[in-house]
Amino acid sequence: MEIKRANAGKIKCLIFDLDDTLWEGTLTEGGAKKLRAGAAELIRTLDSRGILMSIASKNDHDSAMDALRRLDPTLPEMFLCPKISWGTKSSAIKEIAEDLNLKMCNLAFIDDSEFQRDEVKFVHPDISVYDASELTSLADYPEFTVRFITEDSKNRRNMYVSDMTRDRAKAEFDGTDEAFMSTLDMRLSIDPVDETQLRRVEELTLRTHQLNSTGYTYSYEELCSFIDSDKHEFYIAGLTDKYGDSGKVGLLLMEDAGDAYVLKLLIVSCRVMTRGVGTALLTHAVRIAAARGKKLRAEYLETEYNRIMYITYKLAGFDEICELDDGEGCILEYAREALPEYPSYLNIVC
Amino acid sequence: MNTQERILKFFIEKNKADDNLTWDTDLLAGGYVNSLFALEIVMYLEKEFKIRIKRKDINDENFRTINNMTALVERLVK
Predict the structure, then answer these.
(1) In CATH, what number does A13-144 get?
(2) Which structural domain, as residue segments, surrounds residue B36?
(3) How far does B56 lie from chain A, in Å, by closest CA?
(4) Is B56 close to A320, i.e. CB distance below 8 A?
């Protein structure tokens, strides 16, 4: 097991100021005729790495979007949820974080104005801020560097766009969550991990904190060794629905401990956490264990963010069988007679 | 408002209530509560009623109905 590399790949979304940061000059004073040197390359590079981009700028929304389009017709679609208004940048950034469901510590903000950077940093101490002069070197900073570029990272922007369309449909839907989900025509594939997927597997273990049941992360080499191991069962889950392909969104790793399988990893991408993937993977795990005459146990280590994992276990029929030494965690075991059912709104393909 | 009504109000504010929801509706079987919303409920109850819900009190029985949640809260505020 390796300790998470402190900063590598930490930034999931870079938020640009416009005037004198993304483009030269000030739009209201006749500027914005040219992107700043290095901006186009930076945008292309980050997009290919699956790092999202957005805008927090004090300007008129429509004129600023027109200016972007004049610079390059493909530019506006690169920015998700741009917030262009005369409000504070800190409030614009708060809205972006909420729209994209990202934590402040995964956001970065670039602005030529020290005053604006300080305002943002004061309100959101966890965000990373950069001066516009760093535009050309940003892509080389470790927090913007990813080890591999996967299919999922290349498609990430499109996935967020379809996520937002789905979220709007959900907000307009009149009924329970379960009823809404049954309208989505969701298919969850659960397959044994093979070598071609290892990079996405590693990416999932590094990017996902909230729904990682143990907080363990494994090195690439360790993950690789589980594929051929007789003592391990290792699955990856992919989700699609009528709004699009959400890509590979979940991982399940179990270790054979004789009378039981022990869950070592249960990871669900936070983008899909409302869609029953965690419950489905747990169900899958219990059913595989039962088919081989084994119990299913899970180790739970309490962290700041993963209380939801404990709740998922308990609502899925697990009971605590013992506490871990320090009381900060416990071992859970599936305790019901009957096998659990997959959520009715998911078509499982395995 | 009593405890029961405050919890129902939370369901309504979170847009999780429909015409069939009563104090005794099975929220888990009825699809009203998934684990994400259960987490929101836990956090809401802790803040609203100034209680701490320990791991041993997180189970499907305590969260199955609004009445059961009410009983849990009233036991913990004592």
Answers:
(1) 3.40.50.1000
(2) 3-77
(3) 8
(4) yes
CB-CB neighbors (< 8 A) of A179 in chain B: 31
Looking at the structure of chain B, the number of domains it has is: 1
| CA-wise closest residue to A295 among A340, A262, A247, A328 | A262
Stated as kind and residue range, the H or E segment containing B26 is none
B28/A315 CB distance under 8 A? yes
| AA identity, residue A85 | S
Tell me if residue A220 falls in helix, strand or coil. helix
Taking the domains of chain A in order of start, what are their residue ranges? 13-144, 151-349
Domain of B64, CATH number, reads 1.10.1200.10
Q: Are A199 and A256 in contact (CB under 8 A)?
A: no
Q: Give the chain B residue whose CA is nearest to the CA of A175.
A: B18
ipTM > 0.90 (yes/no)? no
Three-class secondary structure of residue A95 per DSSP: helix
Distance from C-alpha of A192 to C-alpha of A55, rounded to nearest angstrom: 40
The long-range contacts involving A31-35, CB below 8 angstroms and separated by at least 24 positions, are A32/A67, A32/A71, A34/A71, A35/A71, A35/A72
Give which of B34, B40, B47, B58 to mutate to test A binding, by max A Cβ within 10 Å. Answer: B34
Structure tokens at A276: 């029953």
Chain A contact probe: residue of B42, B52, B55 with most A CBs at under 10 A: B55
B35–A279 C-beta distance less than 8 A: yes
Give the pLDDT of chain A (350 residues) as one tens digit per residue: 333 445 777 899 999 999 999 999 999 999 899 999 999 999 999 999 999 999 999 999 999 999 999 999 999 999 999 999 999 999 999 999 998 889 999 999 999 999 999 999 999 999 999 999 999 999 999 999 987 788 788 888 998 889 889 988 988 888 777 888 999 999 999 999 998 888 888 878 777 655 666 667 788 889 899 999 999 999 999 999 999 888 899 999 999 999 999 998 888 887 787 788 888 999 999 999 999 999 999 988 887 777 888 888 888 889 999 988 777 889 999 999 999 989 889 999 98
pTM for the structure as a whole: 0.74
Beta-carbon separation of A308 and B39 below 8 A: yes
Answer whether A307 touches B (CB < 8 Å): yes
CATH value of A151-349 in 2.40.50.140, 2.60.40.10, 3.40.50.2300, 3.40.630.30: 3.40.630.30
